[in-house]
Amino acid sequence: MADTQDQSAGLSAEQELDRRLYVQVVERNMTVLQSFDGGRSSLSLSEIAERSGIGRSAVQRIVYTLSHLGYLRRDEATQRFGLSSQILQICGGMFGSETADPEILSALQALAVETGESTAWIGREADEIIILQSVRSRHFSHVSLPVGKRFGAVTAASGQIFLAYDDLKDAETAFNRAANTARERLNIADFGAYSQLLGRVKDRGYALTEKAEDLYSLSMSLAVIGADGLPVGAVNVSALQSRLPKAEAEARLLEPMRSAVRRIAQALGL
């Protein structure tokens, strides 16, 4: 298979490549990462080699290294690879307000204005959810949702939205892997009871939890559903219960959040 193409092709005089400084190994690593369409894409070694134009043996070494460093994740069952959310750590403020997806950010901003609370766009990796974009509440006292922060999926509202659409066996695996403290927080000892909770979440179309990370706060999440019928992400609103009691959350948040979900789904072409 052909090696990577010369990336210097088409460079202007000002951009002319200085091969004394250029490190081709770095180019190959980035070419492998660029083979993925997005964080949810999964590829086999052969597919990565085909997309990147790098020989399979070299791809195998690069993928092994990137997996060991945590930038790629491997599905043990299928032996396929995908981008890890650890990419956020080297992207810095990529998902911050200045460089975020403008359509998703606009929807989050409108939701934050309407509700007065912190809003976020949430992704998932295995047993964790990750904050990909967020807009803070206008209030001085608010729930902080820093980009890149992770939470265990089992107890988090957004995690429960994702798990509600999972195969029961996969959801049970996530539940069993959760820390004992997570199950204690839910006051649920067995998966049978937890599966009933997930069923209620899916039936009503949202998850609502009280958060341990911020004292007396709540978190409400709705899914944005992809063409395959599975969530591609979740819209979240987090608020202090001193301002938004749990008993009022559905009445005050559900319709604005549904509107945000529709806007994001349209922006994503769903």
TrEMBL record:
Gene3D superfamilies: 3.30.450.40, Winged helix-like DNA-binding domain superfamily/Winged helix DNA-binding domain
Cross-referenced SMART domains: HTH_ICLR (SM00346)
Keywords: DNA-binding, Transcription, Transcription regulation
The HTH iclR-type domain, residue ranges: 23-85
Organism superkingdom: Bacteria
Span of domain IclR-ED: 86-270
GO biological processes: negative regulation of DNA-templated transcription
Any one GO MF annotation of this record: DNA binding
Family matches, as PANTHER family: HELIX-TURN-HELIX TRANSCRIPTIONAL REGULATOR, ICLR FAMILY, HTH-TYPE TRANSCRIPTIONAL REGULATOR RV1719
Record's protein name: IclR family transcriptional regulator
Natural source organism: Frigidibacter mobilis
